[in-house]
């Protein structure tokens, strides 16, 4: 995973995809007693942040928006 930055935003690259970072949260905020991520609870957070993907790095969940490819028409 590469981390790039530009004024007022940060971008991560994972494989061939690039994402704009919208919000970073601790994984522990969304796990239950069995250490499993509560996807419903996390989904509400993703919707609130305006993202469409979640990337996990260490103990952080990074809420991101995928940067779509620009194609000529």
Helices and strands, in order, run as EEEHEE
Radius of gyration: 14 Å
Looking at the structure, what is the overall shape? elongated
Count of individual domains:
1
Describe the structure.
- With 73 residues, the protein is an alpha+beta fold.
- The protein has one domain (2-66).
- Helix content is 15%, strand content 45%.
- It has a five-stranded antiparallel beta sheet with strand order 1-2-3-5-4, covered by helices on one side.
- β1 and β2 form a beta hairpin.
- The longest helix is centred in the middle third of the chain and has 11 residues, at 39-49.
- The relative contact order is 0.24.
Concise description?
The chain is an alpha+beta fold and 73 residues long. The protein has one helix and five strands; from the N terminus they run βββαββ.
Secondary-structure blueprint:
Elements: E1 2-6, E2 9-14, E3 17-26, H1 39-49, E4 53-57, E5 60-66
Antiparallel strand pairs: 1-2, 2-3, 3-5, 4-5
Task: Record keyword descriptors for this entry.
73 residues; alpha+beta; 5 strands; 45% strand; elongated
């Amino acid at each position: 995973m590469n981390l790039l930055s530009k004024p007022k935003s940060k971008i991560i690259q994972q494989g061939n995809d690039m994402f704009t970072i919208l919000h970073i949260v601790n994984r522990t905020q969304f796990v239950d007693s069995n250490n499993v991520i509560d996807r419903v609870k996390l989904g509400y957070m993703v919707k609130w942040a305006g993202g469409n993907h979640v990337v996990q790095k260490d103990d952080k969940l990074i809420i991101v928006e995928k940067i779509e490819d620009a194609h000529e028409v």
